[in-house]
Amino acid sequence: MLAIANILKKSEIPFYLEIVGNGPLRRDLFIERRRLNLNDEVSFSGSLNQKTVRQLYLESDAFLFTGIVDSRGDRDGIPNVVPEALAAGMLVLASDRAGAPEAFIDEKSGFSLNPEDYSSWVSILMDFWKFPEKYLNIRKNGQFAARENFDSKINGCKLLNAYMN
Prior knowledge:
single chain, alpha/beta, Rossmann fold, two-stranded parallel ribbon, globular
């Protein structure tokens, strides 16, 4: 994530990146942010409650999930944050190495990207900054995908209907 932010900064694309959450890499991330001179562009908010996270979704344009498979083979399934970001109408760019792309259709309602190919992430973000209207349908499709696939009422009704038939 910080490598992507570093390239964006060098490209003179205005942005602000807020990284939400905590973990064992927190100290290393602070050091790397300082090393890359990204203190003005990147903040670490730590763990936040759901209401605050929802507000961040609504105030933001894009959501990046750069998850990877760790050295033990551990990976996320579909991280809750991905459908939440889709539902809020954000442009979602997500790692193709974890379960995030299961929440959307690549290039139709989000983007599934190699987390090690920073240039592909930056290319989409630069194009989005220059031509945001090109991404309106993808964002709307993401909202639809989140509603259809992750809404508890819709899924409850589908499950009930499956048992009834």
